[in-house]
């Protein structure tokens, strides 16, 4: 992190800088200044992942108004810097709640997100997949061809109009949810893949990212219905789980390619 970037932040002089996460698309730091804690995110490789960062910031400001995401204190689009308050709540993954309660909370959060009235363009999973394929092909044509063949049986699923469109997070891992002991105060982070799309893709991401068993998936579906009044159709969910697992493999292939290119 460059010293000049820290000096330009609209806070008191930074006393402490601790790395929290270092990935390809984001580097995240915890800052301490004048007794207050902040999170500073450095966004990178946005085009490679088809991420509209300015739209992400506008979205997070809407979500902050709903009390579901931390406030945006500062955004430097040119440098890709985002400053937010540090969330003092524990991550759902690290609470003392039972695993079954954590699943219920993730279903509750999912239902709340899907019910939000957010102004955003529709999010195309097929367009995102095709961009990943083009990016992979630049460095490994054989890998791109392999994924093209594996994705072929799912093209009809990708192209059919969704009757389950909603505003979705699409990355709702337990460590992206912050919650108090009574699960009354909840905040969610990492909204870069959020958008208006098929809620079944969002369901599948939540199930796969948190590695739910079949029984845990059933509990998630029942809990979601209890909070939303909407029944999850397992016959529709199962092929989406297969497709989403393939999308994750595709994403990680691109991720590792970018990582290797940085190390060359």
From TrEMBL:
Residues 17-237 form the Aminoglycoside phosphotransferase domain. Gene3D superfamilies: 3.90.1200.10, Phosphorylase Kinase, domain 1. GO terms for cellular component: cytoplasm. It comes from the Bacteria. One of its GO terms (biological process) is phosphatidylethanolamine biosynthetic process. Pfam families: APH. GO terms for molecular function: ethanolamine kinase activity. This is Aminoglycoside phosphotransferase domain-containing protein. The lineage of its organism: Bacteria, Pseudomonadati, Pseudomonadota, Gammaproteobacteria, Alteromonadales.
